[in-house]
Design a protein that fits this description.
single chain; alpha/beta; seven-stranded mixed sheet; four-stranded antiparallel sheet; 7 helices; 17 strands
């Protein structure tokens, strides 16, 4: 990626994070969850800019090593999910977000802690850049669904994932600095499970086949202030823009009508022996009430229910 493109992406992340904090950091907050990922850096940066009388009494709960270090370096009060079970709000990033606000998370191998913190919050707010907008999960985030598994069960889980229709699930390696698999903070492995064409199951899969889709199935929901007279569909209280050439949501995938497939797969993965947690954030666990996306043109697109700011 060129320096110019990188600058656009980082600026987009910052714009989304700053607006999310400005609109959702509670006036009388006591406990706030801080997620993981590159966009969360700007969340903590914005929180650190708030008046100290708004943050000195707040305990910040991290989802892993990265967010713990961000909290400490910002001079904020560090807590833990073991001691803080009810959080006022949780700010986190995402690897991919669909029109129903289902998310894929876990690219940084913190998905178990991220989900534990998310379900402890009164609301989850996601911040990301335009590249994370998707018409259907598993179309934009190439590695697929991150799944944390206990090491002895890895081969069994890989076999089950293939049976469910995953195309080439693999145990994530630790990178150049480590020989062997990536090890999570809990001592487990991560399996990355891509699903071809989003969550469209293969014929032999035990997951139900999708319903027929309309021509507008690849769609993206934003609060762009569009008139109800435009004829666009509505998802999550926001207008849905049809697939447009060059739009970040213009990829082949399940799109609208696929929510039931996301939920069925999420439930199925929960039942596989050896799976500790998966990276689908959905209604059965916790998905965001709002998601903020920094766009290439400097604006911030918002998905969700705009009445749920505070």
């Amino acid at each position: 990626m060129s320096l110019a493109a990188l600058s656009v992406v980082e600026s987009a992340k910052r714009q989304a994070a700053y607006r999310a904090v400005d609109e959702h950091f509670p006036v009388n907050a006591r406990y706030v969850g801080i997620g993981s990922g590159s966009t969360v850096v700007y969340v903590v940066d914005r929180i650190a800019q708030l008046p100290r009388d708004r943050t000195d009494h707040v305990t910040f709960v991290p989802t892993g090593y990265q967010s713990r270090e961000l909290i400490l370096k910002a001079g904020l009060k560090l807590g833990s999910i073991e001691l803080c079970l009810e959080l006022d709000v949780v700010f986190d990033g995402a690897d991919e977000v669909d029109p129903f606000l289902n998310c894929i998370k876990g690219g940084g191998a913190c998905l178990f802690q991220e989900k534990l913190v998310a379900i402890s919050g009164r609301k989850l707010i996601v911040v990301a850049d335009f590249r994370k907008l998707s018409p259907s999960l598993s179309t934009h985030y190439a590695p697929g669904i991150p799944i944390e598994v206990v090491p002895p069960a890895a081969n069994h889980v890989l076999a089950r994932l293939s049976h469910l229709g995953s195309t080439g699930p693999t145990v994530r390696m630790g990178g150049t600095a480590k020989a062997g698999p990536c090890i999570t903070d809990n001592g487990n492995f991560i399996i990355d499970a891509p699903f071809q064409d989003g969550f469209i199951p293969v014929a032999s899969s035990s997951i139900s086949p999708p319903r027929p889709l309309s021509p507008s199935s690849s769609a993206v929901a934003v609060d762009a202030g569009l008139s109800p007279d435009t004829g666009h569909e509505r998802v999550g209280g926001s207008d849905v823009l049809g697939k447009e050439e060059g739009h970040p949501g213009a990829a082949v995938g399940m799109g609208l009508g696929a929510n039931e497939n996301v939920e069925e797969l999420a439930r199925t993965l929960k039942g596989v022996v050896g799976v500790v947690e998966h990276g689908i954030f959905w209604a059965g666990d916790r998905k965001p009430v709002m998601a903020y996306f920094g766009m290439e043109d400097g604006t911030v697109a918002v998905r969700g229910h705009t009445s749920q700011h505070h």
